[in-house]
Design a protein that fits this description.
This protein is mostly helical and 625 residues long. The chain is built from 25 helices and eight strands. The protein has helices spanning 6-16, 28-44, 64-80, 96-106, 119-129, 155-161, 171-177, 183-193, 221-233, 239-247, 252-269, 284-291, 298-305, 327-337, 372-382, 397-411, 417-437, 443-451, 460-469, 477-481, 488-510, 526-538, 550-565, 582-596, 604-607, and strands spanning 2-5, 49-53, 110-113, 133-135, 147-149, 307-309, 344-350, 353-360. Strands 3-2-1-4-5 form a five-stranded parallel β-sheet, sandwiched between helices. 41% of the residues are buried.
Amino acid sequence: MVIIDGNNLRYSLYRDTPGTNHAFTGEYDKYYKHVHEYFSTLVSCGITPIVVFDGGYDVSDIKQRTVMHRARDQIRNSLACNSVSQHKIQVYPLLGKSVYLDVLADLNIQCVQTLFEADQIIARMGMERGCPVLSNDSDFFVFSVDFVKLDSVDIIRSKEEGKLVCDIFDRNKFLDYYNFSNPDLLHLLASLIGNDYIPPSVFDVIFSTIKLPNKTKSGTERHRKIRGLISWLSKESNVNSAIDRILGAFQEKDRKSLKTKILASMDVYSGGDDGQQDQNILPQRLQKDFFECRLPNWTMDVVARNRFLLPPQVECGDKPSAHTITLPIMRTIIQIINAAEKPITIQGRTKHSVGTIFTLEDPHLDISDMSGEEKKSLFLESLGWKLGSSALDLIPDELLGLFLVLQFWSKHGLVTPAHVYSILLARSIVLDVDPAIDSLRNEKKIKQQLENPQTPSNKKPYLKTISRYAPFFHVDETLKSSIRKFDRELVHSLAVFQAVFYSSTVLAALLNNPVIIPKISNFFSGTFVYNMTTSINKKPETLKECFLPEEARRNFVATFQLFVDNLPNLGEITSPRKQKKKKVAKVVEKKVELSDGVDSDLTQSETENVFVDLENRFSALIVAS
């Protein structure tokens, strides 16, 4: 058994997913396959994973400044990301966690969502079960638990050898290297640096009484303080005497309360209770779905903090956030969750920074006595569907959720048959073609298999199909060197679609899934949808073409026609606007403005990559090899 830091791993796996193009809003088919391969390998090695996710932000708001810094950084990256810069700017897609959770459900892997930050609970689960923790979070160097860095896991060798190939952190070697007499001093070090129980500023006075190492160009002031503390604590043989020396720097009236906080913090690192359950104000009716990851982590923020933050996507900075049009759906969601009927602030991207998207002050909606049909009606109304219309009777159950999302999207933006065709075609390729060819996308390998006389004849129709469509799964070479033809408005439109899909899945979960919401990985590949939509805009007659195998082609054509006939708000297909060269310069200028919008005390190394952990307190520590 292993306990996995769920958030840490999901970012790491997306970063390492082959062939992802961050500028096109989400490669969910590729991500699903990569995550599935990882967890399937763990299971095949005889390992039982338990995946634990963070819940809401702590009600004390100790980390609020860090949260806002990270949010601004993500917004900067999402707006700066384009077809040229995407190789160095990574943006985790909105529905990435949904894909990750789909894999866990499909493999019957247990997942747990904590009320607030998960680190302490992950560590305690590892201690209680006597099993290691897998994470890249440096906090686990401190907890008294076996620790495996995710980056040390060799999943390819693990699959080949049938056992987990990785490195386990040697804490005793660590303590010897820094001359710490026992682990308690390490727990004290972490408490003095600051955590969810003690803000770092509380012990600033200590650093005026100890000798700090010289400043270096590569090290931050925080790292300098850490090294100074390590040197100071290494001279202590007993943790109690060290605490007494620390408290001696404070006034007598403050010492007792500070000592209580220090001991409580140290107790957490050694496996003590973090007190989360004492702060559990989540309504009983939501708890099971929340703890089992069927509701988003910000559900707790709504209840405990009366505000929550929606993540940005790759979109247009001069347009409102893609989440804005989801207001009718979000209103119903908040009405169901917010039994206290307090005003709820929904934050997200506003222009180039973080701001309030909307504030909701609606009465609580009690759904506890609603029948299944009543919940379905509420879902339909929230997505703007006119009750009584017979059109839904024509839509198969497995397509109903997707159809409703498309109709809501088309009512609030320019959506054409090209968008619908591209999404439905991607669905047919993923569901009908990929199983026969193992999701093959490499054009050279496709050609080799088609020309190989040993290739089974029943496989060749699928290879012929993918030979026609494989180029659409890759970025056009001209876009890699120039953004002149990069259609950011189309990307923004696809971000809006995903925002609608996201809020719809949350509402469906709250209502016990009155309609089937398909897996996003079964029909959405951002690069493919972008390329196919662009191709149709240039050549509308493409809508009359279809190179799927015969049965799949008949089903696709019928589904596409059914959708188009019953989506009355679809717009006309228009050719893409040609951009003048001078507009490229404006984009560059806008990037500079974005950088200026981020607080200046974030260093370049901290903001270069959206996956960087800004809470990496111990990254300055070096362990002898």
